[in-house]
Amino acid sequence: MVWSCDRCTFLNADGGLTCSMCFSTRTEAKDFEGSQWQWRAGDIWIPYDLDSCGLLERAFQEKRVSRISLEHGYFAENPGYQVAFDRTRGRHVQLNTCSGGTRSVRRLAEDDPMLFETVSTLGASRGICSICQLDLEQEEASSGQVVKMIMCTGSEPHLFHRSCIFQWIKINVTCPYCKKSVIL
Question: pTM (2 decimals)?
Answer without folding.
Answer: 0.72
